[in-house]
Amino acid sequence: MTRVIIAGGGLAGLAAAVRLSDHPLDILILESAPRLGGRAWSFPHSHSGSDVDNGQHVMMGCYRDTLDYLTRSGRRHLLDRRRGLALDFVHADGRRGVLQAGRLPHPIGLAQAFLRYRLLPPASRLRILRAALRLRALRDQDLAALDAKDAASWLRGLGQRDDAMRYFWQPLVLATMNTEAEQASAKLLAVVLREIFLRDAEAADMLLPQDGLSSIFVEGARELLQQRGCDIRLRCTVQTFLTDGGAVRGVRLADGTELGADAVISAMPPWALQRVLENSEASVLPAIDFDRFHPSPIVSVHAWLRRELDAGPMTGLLDTTLQWVFDREEDSDGSRHYSCTISAAAESVVSMDEEELRALLLRELRLLRPDLMEDDILRVLAVREKRATFLPLPGMERLRPEARSGTPGFYLAGDWTGTGLPATIEGAVRSGYTAADVAVVDLVSGAEPRPSAR
Ligand SMILES: Cc1cc2nc3c(=O)[nH]c(=O)nc-3n(C[C@H](O)[C@H](O)[C@H](O)COP(=O)(O)OP(=O)(O)OC[C@H]3O[C@@H](n4cnc5c(N)ncnc54)[C@H](O)[C@@H]3O)c2cc1C
After folding, report:
1. Mean of the per-residue pLDDT values for the chain?
2. Ligand 1 — pocket residues by CB below 6 A?
3. Ligand 1, pocket-test mutation among 36, 39, 350, most atoms within 8 A of CB
4. Cys-Cys link to 181, which of 12, 152, 367, 373 (CB 3.0-4.6 A)?
5. Are 357 and 380 in contact (CB under 8 A)?
6. Distance from the alpha carbon of residue 238 to the mean position of ligand 1, in angstroms
């Protein structure tokens, strides 16, 4: 049987396998870690045993491939859909605002969300609306030219002033691209905004996980893949791609084992793929400008409180260090679990110790419950993901490689490849689907026929 090896068992690798498993193929996933899921995973907390995510993940109605993946793996019901944005905000001075689509049909309902956002003066709300209209009129050829620009200058060119930048655009850019607008590709932001705001009424819905990430994104897919005969091997590090006659013919693992294949899909992050390519025969393999792919961190601070905060499921904080507070509801020991996110965290935040984090939580969570006391914070756990995403700098879009690498038998997936989306679950799943589809086309059409090397 034709064999496809997938190197990396994050969501891109799992999605590639799910898609490939529709075909009569011998599929082998090789994952270096002792678990699947990559950067989206959960683990049992030592105190309560409840699942804790490595960081809060939010999906959106426009995550079409992710929803397909979850439907196939039987886990779609574990996402709670909040209709029409539904975002609460609290400013450091205590003022509150909400972004919630109105009842009128799309896109007027969405325009109502901007017009009712009380944290900005009416003139700034109107300017946001005008920017949205200009975005709507943007043609695809204009979009391509935007890659050279940063998102902040582009937005300012669309008439956005300091207040809208600070209390509307920056939170949106940080949440979707894990960087400040000054460092983000304007093209990528324009694509994100079009996906979320201009596609259809459901695209802007927020989808919040109702269980641990591993249960939602890994377990269902693993069960499906095992039922379909896919071989999943953990603690297997791919060290070298084996080549022959200008094509990739398999992999060598760190323990020296050689495994032949008709096609290999790399679903590793750029920093891992770079190492494997350096060990392989360079002349055959694609040249990727890895030096331009820089990581951006996310710090997630989990807090278990004695008392409930006056907050909905997802609250944005403005002019604070914590950016989002998610209510993860009551834990099995009766405490209330909150997950707080700091995207593009500065080194001073990444290196905070528990005492500093407790002080930060007390200060900023008091915005959501002014009578919160020090001993209301029962437990704190910080997860520091230093390589949460790649930094989508201006000019990066043209450097992100296509799924069909140019080397026969070798395909690329992962949130950093040329998906046209920022590093997100949707980008990862889409990249896995695309790599699987092009590999199948090549294998079936015989464009790259090779006998199995086993
Ligand atoms: C804290 C945090 C919060 C986030 N929040 C959101 C969010 O709200 N919404 C959203 O859409 N996205 C979010 N993301 C981004 C999302 O998690 C990632 O984009 C996605 O999980 C990336 O998947 P991937 O499969 O491309 O890469 P990865 O998850 O990195 O998977 C790659 C896999 O390859 C394995 N590997 C590496 N080297 C080798 C080797 N040599 N041999 C074999 N295996 C190897 C790794 O162990 C890993 O399992 C967040 C990420 C983090 C960290």
Report:
1. 95
2. 7-13, 30-33, 38-40, 54-55, 57-58, 237-238, 267-269, 272, 276, 298, 300, 385, 388-389, 414-415, 423-426, 428
3. 39
4. 152
5. yes
6. 17
- The predicted-structure confidence for 21-32, as pLDDT tens digits, reads as follows 999 999 999 999
Identify the pLDDT of residue 449.
40
Is the pLDDT confidence value at 317 over 50? yes
Q: Is the pLDDT of residue 452 over 50?
A: no
* Residue 256: burial class (beta carbons within 10 Å; 0-12, 13-18, 19+): exposed
Is the model's pLDDT at 450 over the cut of 70?
Answer: no
Q: How many whole angstroms separate alpha carbon 116 and alpha carbon 122?
A: 8
If you take atom 3 of ligand 1, which residue's CA is the nearest one?
55
- The pick from 42, 57, 239 for probing ligand 1's pocket by mutation, whose C-beta has the most ligand atoms within 8 angstroms, reads 57
Interval between CA 136 and ligand 1 midpoint (Å): 32
Return d(Cα 399, Cα 282) in angstroms, integer: 18
Using the Cα atoms of residue 19, residue 21, residue 22 and residue 26 in order, give the sign of their dihedral.
positive
pLDDT at 188 over 70: yes
Which residues of 307-390 form beta strands (DSSP E)? 314-318, 324-330, 336-343, 377-390
Ligand 1, atom 12, residue with closest C-alpha: 424
b/e per residue 223-241 (b: at least 16 CB within 10 A):
ebbeeeebebeeebbbbbb
Taking the CA of residue 66 as reference, the ligand 1 atom at the shortest distance is 11
What is the per-residue pLDDT across 352-366, written as a single tens digit (0 to 9) for each? Answer: 999 999 999 999 999
Phi-psi map region of 250: left, alpha, beta (phi>0 left; psi -120 to 50 alpha): left
Q: What is the pLDDT of residue 447?
A: 57
Q: What share of the chain is helix, strand, coil (3-state, %, to 5)?
A: 35, 25, 40
Task: Please give the Cα distance from 130 to 249 (Å, whole number).
Answer: 54
- HSE of 4, CA atoms in CB hemisphere, 13 A: 35
Element (H, E) at 51: strand 51-53
Which of the listed residues 192, 293, 425 should we mutate to test ligand 1's pocket, taking the one with most ligand atoms within 8 A of CB?
425
User: CB-hemisphere CA count at 13 Å for 360?
Assistant: 25
Please, are residues 124 and 162 in contact by the beta-carbon 8 Å criterion?
A: no
- Cα(362) to centroid(ligand 1), Å: 31
- Predicted TM-score (pTM) of this structure: 0.96
Mean local confidence (pLDDT), 112-131: 97
pLDDT score for 50: 85
